[in-house]
Amino acid sequence: MARGKKRGGQTRERFFDYTLLTVVLFLLCIGLVVLYSVSSYDANLTFNDSAYYIKKQAVATVVGIVLMFVVMNVDYHIYDKLAVIAYGVSAVLIFLVVTPLGYEANGARRWLNLGVSLQPAEVAKVGIIIFCASLVCKLGTRLNSREGIAVLLVPVLIICAMVYLITDNLSSAIIILSIALVMLFIVTPNYKYYVIIILAIGFVAGITILLVTNGILTEEVSYRIGRIRAWIYPEAYASTTAFQTLQALYAIGSGGLFGKGLGESMQKQFVPEAQNDMIFAIICEELGLFGAVAILALFLIMIWRFAEIARSSNDAFGAMLVIGVMAHISIQVILNIAVVTNTIPNTGISLPFISYGGSSVVFLLIEIGIVLSVARSLYYE
Hints:
The chain is mainly alpha-helical.
């Protein structure tokens, strides 16, 4: 803590959330250890270097931690002035994917080569959090009207459409839209719109499942229909679309209560891209239910700290920034685990701070830096 201003002759101490910082560092350390355990076999076969993935992730983590501490020491109010710029930069970076700067990896063109590899969708998540936080505060009570909601959601939907159409990244588009909806939900007392949205989504999902199960919608329509069929009938697609999901379920089932032990996973040899979206399945196999619950507990503590910081924030803008970060991380954790356990159709969603991905960990740590900046604006009496 640092010395703060005096009020009524009493010195105030600046607040620092050591609990949140400790949880983040714990998750990063666990992520690096688990990543090496999960990826060493594949890295050795593919690159003849068992530490290939962890070395790249470690570099990204160090860069992210440095940026986190830099951002933490910047007054978060500056982002209110940069909100439109953050939105514009997000849109431009997504567009650049179709230029020669964009490149393809693992069958998808979603990355930029700017001297370092960058995934614009990760930038867009931070940009949308800042943009929505600023716009929510500017719109105020106008958000209680349909026009106000449209003013907020239309720019978000444009970014979502760009992410989906340009990078073919439906999962990131859904996460970005969900972040905006959660932030909107927090500040609007009229919940009927959200009930309508939930009912509409449920209706569309139900009709889609009905059409798929009756053979009216098939893989020929879209490869995503194939994923839905593989989700409903995984055994029928055991050697193709559902192979990754079934291997992940085998890993979860074989872990038991305390797991096989760190590094002892057998399924990491069979689960495609185990170091990415399916890393939680290998955690369950090696560390068991106990290890999986411990990691989920860390995420719950993190979300609790976000909620406390948002509740205690000095202004609405700081609170909305924290709520946006909380929405992003909690949604991504929930969706990742839902995919791994076959609760929803398979789609590429990483587990925050743990899955392999340099862009992801760097921008997640930047978001944590923003939250810590808001926390540092608070004072002990």
